[in-house]
Amino acid sequence: MASSVFLVIYLSVGALFLQQIAQVIYNVFFSELRKIPGPWYAGITGIPKQYNAIIQRKQSRWSHEMHKTYGPYVRIAPDEVLIDDIVAFREVHRMGTPYLKTKIYQYLNPTPPGTPPYGLFQETDPIKHSNVRRMVARGFSLGYLRENWEATVHDRVKAAMKGMKEEAASNGGEVDVYKWWPLMAGDVISTLMFGECPYAIERGLDDELIAAYKLNDAGNGFAYSFPYIYHILKWLPIPSLKRAWAGNPVLIRQGQQAVKNSKGMSQKANIFAKVLAEAEKDDPTLSDFEIALNAGVLVFAGTDTTATSLTYLVWAVLSNSGLRRELEDEVAQLQIPYTDEKVESLPILNAVVKETLRLYGAAPAPLPRYVPREGALLGGYYFPAGTTVATQAWTLHRNPAVFENPDVFDHTRWLGDLASREDVKASWAPYGAGSRICIGMHLADMELRLATTAFFREFKGAELAASTTRESMEVDNTFLIEPHGGACKIILPTE
Ligand code: HEM
Prior knowledge:
Keywords: Oxidoreductase. The protein is of the alpha+beta class. Helices cover 53% and strands 8% of the residues.
């Protein structure tokens, strides 16, 4: 009996091994993707990509180097191809595209990772996604945001200025803007989502919600990168591992607040109150759980993104004293009270925001999509159904044929008619494009404008601290970017 069990095990292991060998032989010698340039190992394994993205935290730089070495189409794994081609980018990321988000997005879900139902960002089913998107989008138009939530942004920006000033006064003038901007962005998006401000600025980094975002970033980021390992680790009774995913229930629990405030159970309205009010006219509507889930997802998606781009904006401006003075002079001329609409007309400020989003948009990494059922012809190559194709804004934004001296932060490039050029419009994608374009882009733009204005009005003559260097601000990233040194310290002028 025992020997026949061993025989079955041996045969199964052997069959599995042979199947793997056959798969590798197929991938290397017969797959259509073998015709696409790439490193020698691409037909065998995608581990080097994982290593550079997760362990080295250089996903976008590594992918960019791949393009520089192998060209616009690069096979980086047996079934995965990086693409740097404007025509293909527009096709893959158009409205109603058949190229759907890959299943890997589901691992960024707070339900926990990889478990349905999925939030707006993580949903891969196009019908379910467009039903939710259509409803939630009503709360994110620029006009609606300005009318209903601009005051919240002004208020939280003002609170952040006060917090920085107080910290600087007790810390020899030094503040870390990379600590303050997430508190501000977290307060803003939480107020919109939940109808109540967590006052993270006033309460600092100990706030439970802020701690939950940070945990989610790391824990769900790991699950997104290594889903198979995650499925093993999540069962192990090790407290530090359990903690890695402990931010998810906090977000969902907090989301219950959004349900309460959206249904007129309190005076504190939130964006979902509008979504539901309008949904009464159509069907279907959002369930209570969908509201809670999406409130959590949007808070997560809307905190570190805006905060990190804002951090890089301040660093880029303070790295160039001429630009700093020009910007300080421009914003100083605004009459109080100023509106977002007024700020949007300032040429230097807006050029600085655009240039920041070009070089330091918070999510410049490859955006993976499946090739649809019928396969696809892109750039002269045939792609079988199910192949993962990914374009990244990091590379599109550093195309020397579109942006001269692409690695240089030069806001003046936006002062002429660059933005209206067709090739620029086609490659400009800090917020993604098409059906899955960032739903929070108008909010992010508004926060970037108003926070930049307040910062350079309030702290005229601010300088980089000695610890803030090109090396400390080197971009690390898996999905979102972050400064290599984990901080961006600034010396504020003393009165
Ligand atoms: C500078 C700030 C931001 C940047 C650079 C950014 C970037 C992006 C990008 C590139 C995508 C597309 C991802 C993909 O196609 O795979 C995206 C999607 C998304 N973003 Fe943002 N984002 C920012 C701010 C925000 C804010 C403030 C919110 C919250 C309101 C938000 C919520 C979302 C959501 C929910 C999606 C998924 C939309 C969908 O699939 O329908 N983002 N963002």
